[in-house]
Amino acid sequence: MNETEPADPTAPAAKKRSGYRRLPVQQRREQLISVALALFASRPPEEVSLDDVAEASGASRPLVYRYFAGGKQQLYEAALRSAAEELTERFRLSVQGTPTEQLGAVLDGYFSFVAEHDAGYGALLRGGSVVETKRTTAIVDEVRRTALRRTLRYMGVREAGPRLTLLVRSWISVVEAAALSWLDEGRQIPPAELRDWLVDEFVAMTATAAGHDPQTAEVLAGLLALEGPGGRAALLLARLGALPADR
Amino acid sequence: MNETEPADPTAPAAKKRSGYRRLPVQQRREQLISVALALFASRPPEEVSLDDVAEASGASRPLVYRYFAGGKQQLYEAALRSAAEELTERFRLSVQGTPTEQLGAVLDGYFSFVAEHDAGYGALLRGGSVVETKRTTAIVDEVRRTALRRTLRYMGVREAGPRLTLLVRSWISVVEAAALSWLDEGRQIPPAELRDWLVDEFVAMTATAAGHDPQTAEVLAGLLALEGPGGRAALLLARLGALPADR
């Protein structure tokens, strides 16, 4: 990856004067992808052309076309892969804090990713984009699978039965729905509130599923032990229990 | 719609003998769509050709091509539209029973739809199919919007704020995730258990959201009043409240 790109014979002299620089291949590739990701944040992917990327990056068109000979589709897939890696990185849990604090920290990372990628995130999860293919769907599915694995590991589970898998997949879909809803409604709800809401929903959904599945009940008991009797999870469940009498 | 299709000049005599019949145009169209839907239930839509539909329906190929001059894509969209209408019909609530009983009845209708359409349902919600376009995504989104409207009406809500909208959209995504997970895991969980689980998750998620939003709190109070103190919702919440002390 230390290869440096060849001089661009087609780059106009003006471009050269205005700052066109030879970059190592990998660095140039990353630059073009990050420019593309920035463009996808404000426009649906099908409306971003290689020419737009060339213009926004200050690289010549032939250069951009050489890096992405497969056209827009190849650029989109490369950008998606890069975004998927970045998102997966943010799933890493901070080691400190109670389980609900750790989950909150992961969600903070997730929502900063959503805020940054905005339209690109929406287009991706909503599907039906002209640049969506089996390959792009596979990338998104891989992110979901990683989220599933990480969440199960966070819950201390080695081998999840169908009911626990269902619970975690369901909660992940709630996180996605919340992110889409948040973008659609013009970010009316502060991200910190959304994070707390999702942590609470995680606890409530797990507690509810515990009534249907012994494995989930065991996992819940472990989390409640880590949270402690005055922790967020215990307080939430106590509040839910008091609701019928409250009326 | 009383128009009868013209005699099919290309239909082989053998086919005619074996039961090829002239049908009114609308009836033939519906027959072909229902044959296509049955094929989509066991194979991804991109693997179903107009020839397959001709063979399975006993109609001649030219006849099928005349009905769907836009090819496979047109057939798929017509089938999707028909399935979407059928699903939307199943959202209609039975008038009797407590709110949780009514919700359970709607979910029964939903899962019978999922079971019937199987692979077709999965392909649709998972996206990335070669036959997926902006138009097909719009059809799916319309079903989701109808589900959102109906659920809000069921909750007695006229105008939902962003937090209540978020809650209902989230729960709908849980239903979808549950259906996909159910199909993926070879239908291990009995549909009646899945229905009860989803009803309980609805109650728990709403009760949790009530702590973050006055409108949701009001809706929950109304539902709990209809359920009564010994109803499913109240018993579930009491059980959740007892969990921290149970350990």
List keywords for this structure.
mainly alpha, 0% strand, homodimer, elongated, 72% helix
Task: Give a description of the structure.
Chain A has 247 residues and is an all-alpha fold. Chain A is 72% helix and 0% strand. The first copy, chain A, contains 11 helices and no strands. Chain A has helices at 13-17, 25-40, 50-57, 61-67, 71-90, 99-126, 134-154, 162-184, 191-210, 214-227, 232-246. The model of chain A is unreliable at 11-18 (pLDDT under 50). At the A-B interface, helix 7, helix 8, helix 9, helix 10 and helix 11 of A face helix 7, helix 8, helix 9, helix 10 and helix 11 of B.
Discrete helix count of chain A: 11
Query: Which structural class do the helices and strands of chain A define?
Result: mainly alpha
Biggest sheet features of chain A: none
Distance between the termini of chain A: 66 Å
Q: What's the alpha carbon Rg of chain A, rounded to whole Å? A: 22 Å
Question: In total, how many beta strands of chain A?
Answer: 0
Helix content of chain A: over 70%
- Give the H and E element order of chain A: HHHHHHHHHHH
